[in-house]
Amino acid sequence: MATIIALTNQKGGVGKTTTSSALAAGLATFYNKKVLAVDLDPQGSLGFSLGLDIENCRTVYDVLTGQVPVREAIQTTDYCDILTSNILLSSAELEFTTHDRKLLLKNALAEVADEYDYVVIDTPPALNVLTVNAYAASNYLIIPMAPEILSLLGVTQLKETIDSVRENLNPGLNVLGIILTKFNKRTLLAREVKEMAENVAAQMGSCVFGAQVRASVSVAEAPAHGISIFEHSPRSKPAEDYREFVGEVIKMTTKGTIQEVM
């Protein structure tokens, strides 16, 4: 059965899609894991980042609306399988009106979960029915956060939604950790926000990942080429940081020692 991880933050611009892409690609590349990536953001950036045409294919919208079985919508990339998204998904709040509207993704993934080691879900920068679907389907949440006060505020506002989902839909949901992105340890603000993030994480029964992802133009360049940061710029600082992050995720979600595939 797959370990399902959703990356979430209602604040945009925190590196959520970049982190989702790096996690999915890293699990497959360095640990030989079978990974399904799921894009729940109507912007469709995750599929685009991994080199797919998101306009001329079946998407997660088709699956959640019952138009096609989940297997018919899954596409294959050089790194992992993926359920892509596009702007049609933006109508979810109005269209998903059935009694199980918050469990549509969980029910869809149940059909293929045994075929994967990990499912990585990229969520929209909002607390809406799509985000709740991701939480209801997941074992763990990872919260990407830029070293900014507004980003920290977004994290604190997630707690109420997480608690509600635990109470009503998914009692086994856990916050795996907060991953700091666009990080520059030389700035006072970054150090202060990291300390505050550690306090917020402790309140959630979680932690801040040891890896902090440093800023670099390579992070922005990789999606334009449709390849992962590890392939585009393997010696860059973000690639090093994301590789460390993926290793932490592996250790926190598996028992025993997992060796990297060299």
The N- to C-terminal Cα distance equals 25 Å
How many strands in all? 7
Uncertain segments are none
Percentage of residues assigned to helices = 40-55%
On the 0 to 100 scale, the average pLDDT is 91
Overall geometric form: globular
Strand content: 5-15%
Strand order of the largest sheet: 3-4-2-5-1-6-7
Number of helices: 12
Q: Indicate the radius of gyration in whole angstroms.
A: 17 Å
- How do the SSEs run, as a string of H and E? EHEHHHEEHHEHEHEHHHH
Layout of secondary structure:
Elements: E1 3-7, H1 16-31, E2 35-39, H2 45-49, H3 60-64, H4 70-73, E3 75-76, E4 81-83, H5 92-95, H6 104-109, E5 118-122, H7 129-137, E6 140-145, H8 149-168, E7 174-180, H9 188-203, H10 217-225, H11 229-232, H12 237-253
Parallel strand pairs: 1-5, 1-6, 2-4, 2-5, 6-7
Antiparallel strand pairs: 3-4
Helix pairs in contact: 1-12, 8-9
Give structural notes.
With 262 residues, the protein is of the alpha/beta class. The chain contains 12 helices and 7 strands. It has helices at 16-31, 45-49, 60-64, 70-73, 92-95, 104-109, 129-137, 149-168, 188-203, 217-225, 229-232, 237-253, and strands at 3-7, 35-39, 75-76, 81-83, 118-122, 140-145, 174-180. A 7-stranded mixed sheet has the order 3-4-2-5-1-6-7, sandwiched between helices. Helix 1 packs across helix 12 and helix 8 (149-168) packs parallel to helix 9 (188-203). The protein is globular, with a radius of gyration of 17 Å. The two termini are 25 Å apart.
